[in-house]
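Schema walk-through. Below, the input block comes first and the output block second. Nothing else is stored per chain. Lengths vary across the set, and this one has 240 residues.
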Amino acid sequence: MRCVPYAYVLLLLTASHPVQGASQTASWHVVRNCPKATPVFRNSHSTAMAQLVRYHGLSKPGEKAKSLVAICWMYAQYCECDKPDKPTLWRIGYGIKKLFVARGRPKEPVRELCRVTRTGNERASFGDYVAAIHGDRPVVVTFCYDPRAGKGLAQAVRRDARCLSALGIGYVKCGRRSYLICQDGVMASGHGVAAADVVEPSSLGLSSHGKPWTRPGTSLYRWDGAQSNVVLTFVGRSGA
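--- output ---
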């Protein structure tokens, strides 16, 4: 039996691949050396943050996944307790900055942009996301379904209602449609408000054998689906 060099296997897993579907051609790409998905714990926002921290190698020795998620929960959670309904906000960008500082990476740039906004310098395109993935910079993605989030970045980053976050580790382009490969930590049914935008790979003619979208806790999401907005949290010096 012929041995295949490990470097060649790694190249196959990380390079862009053309895939022939039933009626169209798809291509995909994922970041290198991504850890296994952390099962969702506490909520999707803190789980996605923890997965990002693990990717950047900032987990402490022996630190359990649930402990890291709980720490991210504390860094991101913010109560507007002066308001009558006391809404809880999930400030992912702010929390990542604070956590990276606490773990010895104080100069790591963090920037949040969104898909729907009237302000040009707040807007993220799918091309921005693709550039981050090709630069091996996973992106925390928040899919928003509260109509108020469609008003722009300031409202969308509140994440105070009807939203789900995941760590974007890759993408699929199929014809004119674009999809995000995300580690959401969902190990069975349970995509909640984002369920309508989760896509079965087989519907795109994608193989399931050994592909990243078949790994536990990983799903394909529409880029331009039913969301009122999509927030992208970029981390890294060459981000969008």
